[in-house]
Design brief:
- The chain has helices spanning about 10-20, 55-60, 75-85, 100-110, 125-135, 160, 165-175, 245-255, 265-289, and strands spanning about 1-5, 30-40, 45, 50, 65-70, 90, 115-120, 140-150, 175-185, 190-200, 205-215, 220-225, 230.
- It is of the alpha/beta class.
- The strands form 3 sheets. It has a 6-stranded mixed sheet with strand order 9-10-11-8-12-13.
- A hairpin with a 4-residue loop joins β10 (about 190-200) and β11 (about 205-215).
- α3 runs parallel beside α4, α4 (about 100-110) packs antiparallel against α9 and α7 (about 165-175) crosses α9 (about 265-289).
- The structure holds nicotinamide-adenine-dinucleotide.
- Nicotinamide-adenine-dinucleotide binds near residues 10 and 12.
- The site of nicotinamide-adenine-dinucleotide (NAD) has 18 residues, from α1.
């Protein structure tokens, strides 16, 4: 069994606790048990799980793993703190708000001999799996992904990082990308922001990624991927899976802790995550320059 602590009990943290209390029967999630949670608020208990101090979690011999479920800007320090203490870490995306910090954390995890896992539930949805099947093996000519949504609370970072799930889709679908240009417009008074990044695939096919937010904007993703013989103009709508997305991620994390994921697969994931964060960093630099 892997004793765990959940840091931050907002939406994601609450689901992490629920999933460990009611793991999918017969799955690897049963190997994780929640021993407590850490919050800045004085909550005492949450879903009948006890609040504990960070100090107790760090030195607790029965705590082997930490789930970092706070706002993005605090991920880096919290991940480092638990890795330093020799604990495995599952962090909700994005791991950090800079590429350099993520690369350092990965080195630290390797030095400590522990697992560092970044959750990517966007890759686990049935809609996405269907989309991936549709574009698999096709040669992209050009494409775009335009995300809209409501304004984020403070602490979630620049849109290239807070929207890393969209970038991760593009990299998972079309392979390594480079950034050719990026712009950022903002009207703080209206709570409006729009980031536009121009990307290129390794065979120089253009992809445009837009993150647009304003209070009240509907959460949508519009895609237009053009191939030589057809185009995908909307995300497929597949029936929902029976296993929740965070539960699937929990099972994957547990498999890593149990040594059931090959070093090659671990490395592929590490390379993809660092590549996305490096692109996000570059987009942010271009937007600010
Ligand atoms: P949220 O605002 O609902 O929750 C964040 C919680 O963390 C808050 O309760 C806050 O008080 C707490 N917190 C902040 N700093 C803390 C600290 N130092 N110690 C203890 N608690 C602290 O946000 P959320 O939607 O749950 O998102 C959390 C993370 O999960 C983000 O990184 C987000 O990108 C990721 N994520 C969320 C979802 C989702 O569906 N909500 C999906 C994928 C990824």
């Amino acid at each position: 069994m892997f004793g765990s602590v959940v840091v931050g009990v907002g939406r994601a943290g609450g689901v992490r606790i629920r999933d460990m209390l009611t793991p999918l029967p017969g799955s690897g999630a049963e190997k994780l048990t929640v021993r407590g949670f850490i919050s800045r608020r004085n909550l005492n208990t949450h879903q009948d799980v006890n609040q504990i101090s960070a100090e107790d979690a760090l030195k607790g011999e029965d705590i082997h793993a930490a789930f970092i479920c706070t706002e993005n800007e605090s991920h880096e320090d919290l991940v480092r703190m638990f890795l330093e203490a020799g604990k495995h870490v599952c962090v909700e995306y994005p791991m950090t708000l800079s590429y350099k910090a993520a690369a350092e954390l990965w080195d630290l995890a390797q030095k400590k001999g522990v697992i560092l896992h970044e959750e990517h539930i966007e890759l686990l949805t049935e809609d996405y799996k269907q989309l991936k099947k549709e574009v698999d093996g096709k040669v992209l000519l050009e494409g775009s992904l335009h995300f809209t949504g409501g304004t984020l609370k403070p602490g979630f970072g620049f849109p290239a990082f807070s929207g890393i799930a969209r970038l991760c889709w593009l990299v998972d679908l079309f392979g390594e990308l480079s950034v050719t240009a990026a712009t950022f417009e903002q009207d703080a008074g209206k709570g409006y922001s729009k980031m536009t990044a121009q990307l290129l695939t390794s065979n120089s096919r253009p992809l445009t990624w837009v993150e647009e937010r304003q209070d009240g904007l509907l959460r949508t993703k519009k895609v237009n991927f053009v191939f030589d013989d057809f185009a995908v103009t909307q995300i497929p709508s597949a029936p929902k899976g029976t296993v929740g997305l965070f539960m699937q991620d929990l099972i994957h994390f547990s498999a890593k802790l149990s040594g059931q994921v090959s070093p090659e697969e671990l490395d592929r994931e590490r390379v993809r995550i660092l590549h996305c964060l490096e692109l996000a960093d570059r987009i942010q630099q271009l937007c600010k320059s």
